């Protein structure tokens, strides 16, 4: 496959609809429904229509106004980042804007060059040789799936080997809404079952998997877990607040014993009303809701940020700077303490 032929200039539809509250995001039907718009889906989520990949110029302009002029660390060599925006489950309209953020961050700061694709066929051992990091732009569901089981397994192994060999992986928002069961109740009034991962190696590598979200717009108080980290220098040490859809992870899928937490929900400052929105049957017992973190996987590095649902988040300079630092960490250019937060 010629990777240049798979480059798609990503963009963003203007309107974003919040997903309904629920225990887990439901995977839509695979067949395209009738009456799909020719230019691609334009709402907040799709149930099978093709993803729209053309930007709203106003959103791109607002995002570009938040971009910095220089990187946090000088690249050790010419870096290349592959952005994958394929979503098999729910499709966020912020996917293309996140992709353009990565592209323009690299262009503006000189930290990396970017290729954007919505084609999982780009994830092969041969094609990945030219890249230093992969960025998962709110991928959902079994995003590497192919009708051929052999091809699917090749892609999955290529992704794991890429990171473990010493390369980087960065993900935003729905990059953790992948490879897990739905956790939906089987009947009205029934307690929801526990959500379980379906690709343990990936679930562990990305740091956890989705079980519930506070819907957009919910005001979330954010705690800075590691004020000394170079990935957090853009935030006030006292923390900050953000309005977005906020993912939480299944109890056994996320652990501070594996990842180095950068930011988390300041749960003590959340209102009792917002806390009560999380279903009691699957509520975390530790009150620990990480938002961004890093970890070593083999010889490689992983960075994840849970926010990024709504387009307005990408207009925030501190948020964009956090993504710059996270990607530079994943590339191996920005050194940071990535030891587990709990022993």
Blueprint of the fold:
Elements: H1 57-64, E1 80-84, H2 95-109, E2 113-117, H3 125-128, E3 133-137, H4 149-164, E4 168-172, H5 200-206, E5 210-224, E6 240-249, E7 260-265, H6 272-275, E8 290-297, E9 300-305, H7 317-331
Helix pairs in contact: 1-2
Q: Span from first to last CA?
A: 44 Å
Q: What is the percent of helical residues? A: 10-25%
Rg over CA atoms:
19 Å
CATH topology: Rossmann fold
- Which overall shape is indicated by the principal axes computed on the Cα atoms? globular
Relevant CATH superfamily: Class I glutamine amidotransferase (GATase) domain
Strands, total number = 9
Strand content: 15-25%
Question: Main β-sheet, in a few words?
Answer: 9 strands, mixed
CATH class assignment: Alpha Beta
Number of folding domains? 1
In which order are the strands of the major sheet placed?
2-1-3-4-9-8-7-5-6
CATH architecture: 3-Layer(aba) Sandwich
Structural class by secondary-structure content? alpha/beta
DSSP summary: helix tally = 7
Mean pLDDT: 85
Low-confidence stretches: 1-31, 39-44
Series of secondary-structure elements, N-terminal to C-terminal = HEHEHEHEHEEEHEEH
What does this structure look like?
- By secondary structure, the protein is α/β, with parallel strands linked by helices.
- The protein has a single domain, classed as Rossmann fold, CATH 3.40.50.880.
- Helices cover 20% and strands 19% of the residues.
- It contains seven helices and nine strands.
- A nine-stranded mixed sheet has the order 2-1-3-4-9-8-7-5-6.
- α1 (57-64) packs across α2.
- The protein is globular.
- The termini are far apart.
- The model is unreliable at 1-31 and 39-44 (pLDDT under 50).
């Amino acid at each position: 496959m010629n990777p240049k032929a798979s480059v798609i200039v990503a963009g963003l539809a203007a309107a974003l609809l919040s997903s309904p509250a629920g225990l887990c995001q439901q995977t839509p039907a695979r067949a395209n429904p009738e009456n799909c718009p020719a230019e691609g889906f334009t709402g907040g989520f799709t149930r099978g229509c093709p993803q729209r990949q053309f930007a709203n110029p106003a959103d791109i302009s607002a995002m570009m106004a938040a971009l910095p002029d220089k990187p946090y660390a000088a690249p050790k060599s010419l870096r290349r980042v592959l952005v994958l925006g394929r979503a098999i489950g729910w499709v966020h309209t912020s996917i293309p804007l996140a992709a353009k953020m990565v592209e323009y961050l690299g262009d503006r700061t000189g930290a990396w060059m970017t290729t954007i694709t919505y084609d999982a066929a780009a994830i092969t051992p041969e094609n990945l040789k030219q890249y230093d990091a992969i960025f998962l732009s709110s991928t959902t569901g079994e995003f590497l799936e192919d009708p051929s089981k052999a091809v699917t397994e090749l892609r999955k192994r290529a992704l794991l080997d890429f990171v473990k060999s010493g390369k980087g992986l960065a993900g935003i928002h729905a990059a953790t809404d992948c490879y897990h069961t739905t956790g939906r109740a089987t009947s009205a009034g029934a307690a929801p079952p526990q959500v379980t991962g379906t690709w343990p190696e990936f679930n562990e590598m990305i740091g956890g998997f989705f079980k519930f979200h506070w819907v957009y717009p919910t005001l979330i108080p954010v705690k800075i877990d590691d004020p000394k980290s170079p990935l957090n220098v853009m935030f006030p040490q006292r923390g900050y607040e953000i309005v977005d859809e906020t993912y939480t992870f299944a109890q056994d899928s996320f652990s501070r014993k594996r990842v180095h937490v950068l930011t988390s929900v300041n749960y003590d400052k959340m209102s009792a009303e917002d806390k009560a929105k999380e279903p009691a049957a699957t509520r975390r017992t530790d009150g620990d809701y990480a938002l961004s973190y890093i970890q070593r996987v083999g010889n490689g590095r992983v960075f994840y940020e849970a926010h990024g649902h709504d387009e307005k988040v990408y207009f925030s300079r501190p948020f964009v700077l956090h993504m710059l630092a996270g990607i530079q960490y994943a590339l191996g250019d920005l050194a940071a303490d990535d030891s587990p937060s709990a022993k």
